[in-house]
Amino acid sequence: ALNVASGSAASGAAGVISIRGGSGLQAGNVRVVAGISSSGAGGAVALMSGGGSSSSGTLTLGTATETRRSGAIVMASGASSKGSGTVAVQTGSSNNGVSGKLSIGTGNVANGKSGSIDIDTGRSKSGQAGVVSVGGREVQVTGSSNIGIRTSSADSTGAVSLSTGSSTEGGSGLLSLST
Q: Is the model more confident about 51 or about 154?
C-alpha cells in the first residue's frame, strides 16, 4: 500500500496535502484512478472529509472561477453492455432532528437568462424509457416564470398524469389546479 499523509498537531492546524498539475501553455491534469481487477470488481475511489468534535469537514467539488467561462462538472457512471451503475446524490440520515437539505439550483445572472435545470431519463430504442419520480410529504414546483410539464417528443409519446395517492385511512389528497 502507498500512504500519503500529513503530520498531526497537538495544538494548531495539522499539515495540508496539495496535489496539483503543472502550469504551462497546456495545463497538466490530475487523475486519480483505482486499479483494475481480473476477477471481481475494480478498486474503489473514496473522497471523504474528516470527522470532528462538532461536525465533519466540507467536501467541495468545483471548477476554477474564470472571467470568461468556467469548466463543467460531470458526474456519471461508466457505460456497460449489461447495465450501467447508479449515480446517487443524497444527504445523510439523522437519528434526531432533521436530515440534511439537498439543493439543486443554477447561478444568478446580472444581465441575461439564468441556467435551466433538466431532469430527464434516457431514451430507449427498444422498450420503455425510464420514469421520473418526485415524492415526499409535500412536493412544490415553483418558479417566477413558466412551469411546463410535458412528455418528450418521440415515435410514440407518453401520457401526462396528475393524481393523488390512495389512502387506507381517511380521504385521499386533493388535486387542485388554479391560476
A: 51
Measured distance CA(57)–CA(153) in Å, rounded = 44
In the DSSP assignment, the letter for residue 169 is: S
Which set of grid coordinates corresponds to residue 106?
Answer: 443554477
Q: What DSSP line would sit under 89-106, residue for residue?
A: --PPP-SSS-PPP----P
- CA angle 94-99-101, nearest 5°? 160
The pLDDT score that the predictor gives to residue 80 is 86
Neighbours of 11 (CB within 10 A): 4
CA dist., res. 161 & res. 151, Å (int): 10
Give the separation between CA 107 and CA 63, rounded to whole angstroms: 14
Q: Please report the DSSP string for 113-126 in residue order.
A: -PPP----PPP-SS
For the residues 10-16, what does the mean pLDDT come to? 86
Backbone angles phi, psi at 132, to 5 degrees: -100, 120
Phi (first) and psi of residue 101, to 5 degrees: -95, 140
Tell me if 117 sits within 8 A of 106, measured CB to CB.
Answer: yes
| Burial readout 129-141 (b: 16 or more C-beta within 10 A, e: otherwise) | eeeeeeeeeeeee
